[in-house]
Amino acid sequence: MTITDPLDLLDIDSLLSDEERQIRETVARFVAEHVRPHVAEWFEAGTFPRELAPELGKLGVLGMHLDGYGCAGTSAVAYGLACLELEAGDSGLRSFVSVQGSLAMFSIWKYGSEEQKLQWLPRMAAGEAIGCFGLTEPDFGSDPAGMRTRAVRDGDDWILNGSKMWITNGSIADVATVWARTEEGVRGFLVPRGTPGFTTHTIKQKLSLRASVTGELVLDEVRLPDSARLPEARGLGAPLSCLGEARFGIVFGSTGAALDSLRAAIAYATTRVQFGKPIAAFQLTQEKLANMAVDLNTAALLALHLGRLKDAGRVKPHQISVGKLNNVRRALAIARECRTILGGSGITLEYSPLRHANNLESVLTYEGTSEIHTLVIGEALTGHAAYR
């Protein structure tokens, strides 16, 4: 009796190039060898192994969609497929790669000076230096325009004061891209670890994204030379463009979490015997599996379509919002439903679905809450912004 893998249901592989399939398979092998054997321990301990960063650098996924400076320069689809396999391991792993490449590195690559790019990007691509992205504040998450962090000129220098919250990689980063309000509008600054007045604190007691480092950044009279300013970043559109890059990775990544959950549920259902036969042979279980597989493949096709649009230079912000809103919601529902198939066993870290579900609660919120993405889509449909 043949068992079809959930992602083979519609032969989506036939829509990928040989190179795209090879990249996906290479990342999948890395996750199988370096992540799956340990991720339950990382999740339970609430740690992310910093020593994994150079290995991810050797794999070539850090800033892989950027050109030059040690970056691979792959297509958006290839990057998305890598995110899918990384998040099939754990959302915390994909978050590390997304923040490193699509936020910290992308902000330097797109808005930095040549000196800044040469100083940071090759080391970050190799995983020798870790970056973070300081935009969200304790009182300003969905409304970054209200940020209170300030940068004031003092001769040839800048003085920064403020704080940032919920910053992935924040307390292990070697450099932070910090966004601050100035007299000329929002500007970005590179703040290296060890700069006087710059401190970080790890956020503990998380119920989600436990295999990921989340921190607070505090800037108290931090003095930076003008060479630390990202010269091409002017206005709030600069950090928002970086967020668009990270959201794209989530469209694929969340699909990976759903895929791994469904694979775990199918494997369990085909071996768990009740009432004299595997629970996979019962109609109610098959209905759950069929509905989830349809949702998974729909999400995968949407992600691939958006990736093709991005590679063609035609993707629009509201389209990324459609992908993020739809795919994270579907992935979260799939992970929860898979847990029901696992029964009591599903509440242990021996199985991945509930871990994925817990992680996806964070993914649903960060890089734009589901409410904000709903309003982005609503504005595209009506022409009216309903944020205020």
From TrEMBL:
<dbReference type="InterPro" id="IPR006091">
    <property type="entry name" value="Acyl-CoA_Oxase/DH_mid-dom"/>
</dbReference>
<dbReference type="InterPro" id="IPR036250">
    <property type="entry name" value="AcylCo_DH-like_C"/>
</dbReference>
<dbReference type="Pfam" id="PF02770">
    <property type="entry name" value="Acyl-CoA_dh_M"/>
</dbReference>
<keyword id="KW-0809">Transit peptide</keyword>
<keyword id="KW-0274">FAD</keyword>
<feature type="domain" description="Acyl-CoA oxidase/dehydrogenase middle">
    <location>
        <begin position="132"/>
        <end position="222"/>
    </location>
</feature>
<keyword id="KW-0560">Oxidoreductase</keyword>
<feature type="domain" description="Acyl-CoA dehydrogenase/oxidase C-terminal">
    <location>
        <begin position="234"/>
        <end position="381"/>
    </location>
</feature>
<protein>
    <submittedName>
        <fullName>Acyl-CoA dehydrogenase family protein</fullName>
    </submittedName>
</protein>
<dbReference type="InterPro" id="IPR052033">
    <property type="entry name" value="Glutaryl-CoA_DH_mitochondrial"/>
</dbReference>
<dbReference type="InterPro" id="IPR013786">
    <property type="entry name" value="AcylCoA_DH/ox_N"/>
</dbReference>
<dbReference type="InterPro" id="IPR009100">
    <property type="entry name" value="AcylCoA_DH/oxidase_NM_dom_sf"/>
</dbReference>
<keyword id="KW-0285">Flavoprotein</keyword>
<dbReference type="Pfam" id="PF02771">
    <property type="entry name" value="Acyl-CoA_dh_N"/>
</dbReference>
<dbReference type="InterPro" id="IPR037069">
    <property type="entry name" value="AcylCoA_DH/ox_N_sf"/>
</dbReference>
<dbReference type="InterPro" id="IPR046373">
    <property type="entry name" value="Acyl-CoA_Oxase/DH_mid-dom_sf"/>
</dbReference>
<dbReference type="Pfam" id="PF00441">
    <property type="entry name" value="Acyl-CoA_dh_1"/>
</dbReference>
<dbReference type="InterPro" id="IPR009075">
    <property type="entry name" value="AcylCo_DH/oxidase_C"/>
</dbReference>
<feature type="domain" description="Acyl-CoA dehydrogenase/oxidase N-terminal">
    <location>
        <begin position="17"/>
        <end position="128"/>
    </location>
</feature>
<comment type="similarity">
    <text>Belongs to the acyl-CoA dehydrogenase family.</text>
</comment>
